[in-house]
């Protein structure tokens, strides 16, 4: 192992993600990165403990994703969901209907007493100066808890810097739109006068026009305010190379030190083996079918389509998307989920796609329709994948950038609309085909899908420029998290992680 080089003594980081897959996964990837930084160049750089805190079902899933021999530990907190009328197994938004999201968010504060007891016990045993909480932005009360116990706190943003800055500004100080407003009407943000948002984007972030009395918005405002008031810094899953403008905006809005430690990339979790052998078999068959299809296609020719693990579009738009894919003539892999009008656990029905669609594209070896889980990281890493039609969730955005794949953006809610803007307007690696659940989203129909796919996968100057920029960003984001063979030459995100640990433990 070499000689230990003490950089400020022992430290214990308590990672506390929000209860959703899109948050649990980045926190797990952060824990793995922290563990890997403990040893560089054959020497132990820090005596650092990392513990992920969550509810029992989430901890069980995270444990399965930790490699053998890892020193990452876990702490379980009981979650009395029934107090908020939630089902007893509801420990993640993955199993919560959209209309129950507010109740679920409010219920997370039920974790506070047991979290504070855990925090107090650790502080007493290891010393307050040796403990730091790294909690999710949506668990702002944890910043109050850390201050009460007398330990350090940092807030982790699992979304991008630009989208976070714009979204938080809208939540805290909503711009005043005239009524009635047209979807295309624009207003500047109070905090950033040079950033303008369309009314359609505003509603997708605010959720309802009645923002003065909306309890969900009040909760989100309180969480952001508590973090800005009590935390010692913002840790963000991005890099200086990806988001210089976004990092400037979030520093200005929060007034806090920022640590851009991303991209934090890791594998996606396949179907839960605890759900039975059928789940395992379906996951294996999906992966085999996708990779076999990609192996049969030319380089950079296939479009991958996915709206993430929790998002989906209405049945009418699903039909238009299918027609557009078929009309494009480009090969594709589409991970489909039931339409937005239906329960996500329902069996997929053929009637949700155009008559004969699956049979036609399969017979022509033109497309693969995967029902449910698809091996996203493996697909994006494959040389035959040329573009990603995505909901622009931040984890998916980072995976696209990591693999140098341009994006056809179809953002649906919240920060996704501003991630899509970042890809198209700031980075030049995206083109937006539709936006939002408000005002119908797709608008122009299947022709627009066909044209957007051609814009990215075709041979125009714009398509070639997008591919060139995506390749350059791939190089930059990988360099940001790189460490040289001597352990001393480090990328910008590695240096940011070192600054974070120095700020927390000295």
TrEMBL record:
It holds the Pfam family Glyco_transf_N. It comes from the Eukaryota. Residues 15-152 form the Glycosyltransferase N-terminal domain. The keyword Transmembrane does not apply. GO terms for molecular function: glycosyltransferase activity. The keyword Transferase applies. Residues 264-283 are annotated as: Disordered. Its EC number is 2.4.1.-. Keywords: Glycosyltransferase, Transferase. CDD domains: GT1_Gtf-like. Belongs to the UDP-glycosyltransferase family. This is Glycosyltransferase. The lineage of its organism: Eukaryota, Viridiplantae, Streptophyta, Embryophyta, Tracheophyta.
């Amino acid at each position: 192992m070499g000689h230990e080089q003490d950089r400020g003594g022992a430290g214990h980081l308590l990672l506390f993600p929000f209860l959703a897959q899109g948050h649990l996964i980045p926190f797990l990837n952060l824990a793995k990165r922290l563990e890997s930084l403990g040893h560089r160049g054959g020497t132990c750089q820090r005596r650092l403990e990392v513990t992920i805190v969550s509810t029992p079902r989430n901890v069980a899933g995270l444990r399965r994703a930790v490699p053998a021999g890892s020193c990452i530990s876990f702490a379980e907190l009981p979650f009395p969901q029934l107090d908020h009328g939630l089902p007893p197994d509801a420990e993640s938004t993955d199993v919560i209907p959209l209309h129950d999201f507010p109740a679920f968010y409010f219920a997370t504060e039920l974790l506070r007493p047991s979290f504070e007891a855990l925090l107090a016990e650790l502080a007493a045993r290891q010393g307050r100066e040796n403990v730091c909480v790294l909690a999710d932005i949506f668990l702002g009360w944890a910043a109050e808890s850390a201050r009460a116990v007398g330990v350090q706190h940092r807030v982790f943003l699992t979304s991008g810097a630009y989208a976070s800055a714009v979204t938080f500004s809208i939540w805290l100080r909503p711009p005043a739109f005239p009524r009635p407003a047209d979807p295309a009407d624009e207003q500047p943000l109070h905090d950033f006068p040079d950033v303008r948002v369309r009314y359609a984007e505003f509603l997708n972030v605010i959720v309802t026009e009645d923002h003065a009395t909306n309890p969900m918005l009040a909760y989100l405002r309180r969480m952001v305010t508590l973090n800005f008031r009590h935390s010692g810094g913002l840790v963000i899953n991005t890099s200086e190379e990806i988001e210089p403008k976004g990092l400037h905006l979030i520093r200005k809005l929060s007034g806090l030190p920022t640590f851009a430690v991303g991209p934090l990339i890791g594998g996606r979790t396949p179907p839960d083996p605890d759900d039975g052998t059928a789940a395992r078999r379906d996951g294996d068959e999906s992966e085999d079918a996708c990779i076999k299809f990609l192996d049969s296609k030319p380089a950079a020719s296939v479009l991958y389509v996915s709206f993430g693990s929790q998002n989906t579009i209405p049945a009418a738009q699903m039909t238009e998307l299918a027609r557009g894919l078929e009309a494009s003539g480009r090969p594709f892999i589409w991970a489909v989920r039931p339409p937005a009008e239906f329960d996500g656990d329902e069996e997929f029905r053929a009637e949700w796609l155009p008559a004969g669609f699956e049979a036609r594209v399969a017979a022509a070896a033109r497309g693969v329709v995967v029902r449910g889980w698809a091996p996203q990281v493996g697909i994006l890493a494959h040389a035959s994948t040329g573009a990603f039609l995505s909901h622009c969730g931040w984890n998916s955005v980072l995976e696209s950038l990591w693999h140098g794949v341009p994006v056809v953006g179809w953002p649906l809610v919240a920060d996704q609309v501003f991630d899509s803007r970042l890809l198209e307007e700031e980075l030049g690696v995206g083109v937006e085909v539709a936006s939002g659940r408000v005002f119908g989203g797709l608008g122009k129909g299947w022709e627009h899908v066909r044209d957007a796919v051609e814009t990215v996968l075709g041979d125009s100057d714009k398509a070639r420029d997008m591919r060139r920029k995506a390749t350059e960003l791939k190089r930059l984001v990988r360099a940001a998290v790189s460490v040289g063979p001597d352990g001393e030459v480090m990328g910008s995100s590695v240096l940011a992680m070192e600054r974070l640990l120095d700020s927390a433990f000295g």
